[in-house]
Structure formats: C-alpha cells, structure tokens
C-alpha cells in the first residue's frame, strides 16, 4: 500500500509592499535629480536623505552605486521610449519628433550626470544591457515612418542618421555657455527632415 505524500502548495512570490515600492520610486527620483544636477552632492547618503529614507533602505534596493545608476538609466530610458506614442497620437509627426527630442535631451543630461558620478564602464554596461541605440533608432523610425506617410518628412532619411545627429548635437553643446543652442540645433534637424522644395 503506497502512501501519498502531500507537499505544501507552492508559494507565489509576494508582490512588493506598497511602501517598499514607494521607497524604490523615491530613491530613483532622488538619484535622477542628483545625477542631473552638476552641483548636487551625489553621495548615496545624500540621495537617501533626498528620498526621505534611511541609507539601509537604499542599500536593500540598490546594493552598489552601479546598481542604482543602472536602475535610474533603465527607468529613464523606458520613460523616454514610452513618450513617443502619446506624442504621435496628439501631434503631427514633425512636431511630435521635435517634442520627443527635448525629452531625449533631458535623458542625455541625466546620463551625463551619471557618467560623471562613477566609472564610465558601468554606464556603458547599462546602455548595452538596455539596447539603447536600437531602441532609440526604433522610436525615431516610427516618427520618420509617420512623417513620410503624411508627406511631412523626406523619404531618404535613415533612423540611425537622426540618432547620430542627436548624439553629435548633445556632445557638441555639452559645455556650451548658450543654454538655447541645443534647442536651435534640434529645430534645424527637424527642418532638415522636411522634403526639399
């Protein structure tokens, strides 16, 4: 006679508690602000204080500075990518792309702050892990496709050419004393995507 052994039902992983999720979001927001502000004290202690949590809470969520940077990077990149669809639904393709480039510029400013606060290799790793170039090209490709379909954009432009131009603008204006220069260059870029007369 065989005896059936019954094992307890498998436990489902618990969803994070509401306050734990809130603390994580607060930490990511505080870190993003610290990394974006050239004058900010980007120490982990200062980030925890700004988030309204203890340093232990920060370390439970992000054991190393690199973990925090990678999480900020991924969160910000996801937000930039997600901003494209609502813009395309509410604006013409050229206006949508122009608005999105401002959002992308803000992301690059955050990334620059992160790069200055740690080893460059950690940020390169975060960019590669998130397939940044491919995702940005995909979003720009969607803007270009919508624009060529409506006749707003030229048909001979590659998404990676636009991405390369954006990266060049951001690098070239990094230390510019004129804060409006990037915006003017972005206007020129969008103008250049319009069909030739």
Write up what this structure looks like.
This protein is mainly alpha-helical. The chain has two domains: 17-63, Orthogonal Bundle (Arc Repressor Mutant, subunit A), CATH 1.10.10; 65-193, Tetracycline Repressor, domain 2 (Orthogonal Bundle), CATH 1.10.357. It is built from ten helices and no strands. The chain has helices at 18-36, 44-51, 55-61, 65-82, 84-90, 93-117, 120-129, 132-150, 159-172, 181-193. α1 packs across α2 (44-51) and α4 packs across α7. The chain starts with 17 loop residues before the first helix and ends with a helix. Residues 43-62 bind DNA. One of its GO terms (molecular function) is transcription cis-regulatory region binding. Residues 21-80 form the HTH tetR-type domain.
The helix/strand class is mainly alpha
- What does the overall shape look like? elongated
Percent of residues in β-strands: under 5%
CATH topology of the largest domain: Tetracycline Repressor, domain 2
The count of strands amounts to 0
- CATH homologous superfamily assignment of the largest domain: Tetracycline Repressor, domain 2
State the order of secondary-structure elements, H for helix, E for strand. HHHHHHHHHH
Question: What can be said about this structure in brief?
Answer:
The chain is mainly alpha-helical.
Q: Keywords for this structure?
A:
197 residues; mainly alpha; Arc Repressor Mutant, subunit A; 2 domains; 10 helices; 0% strand; disordered N terminus
Question: What topology does this entry show?
Answer:
Layout: H1 18-36, H2 44-51, H3 55-61, H4 65-82, H5 84-90, H6 93-117, H7 120-129, H8 132-150, H9 159-172, H10 181-193
Helix pairs in contact: 1-2, 1-4, 1-6, 4-6, 4-7, 5-6, 6-8, 6-10, 8-9, 9-10
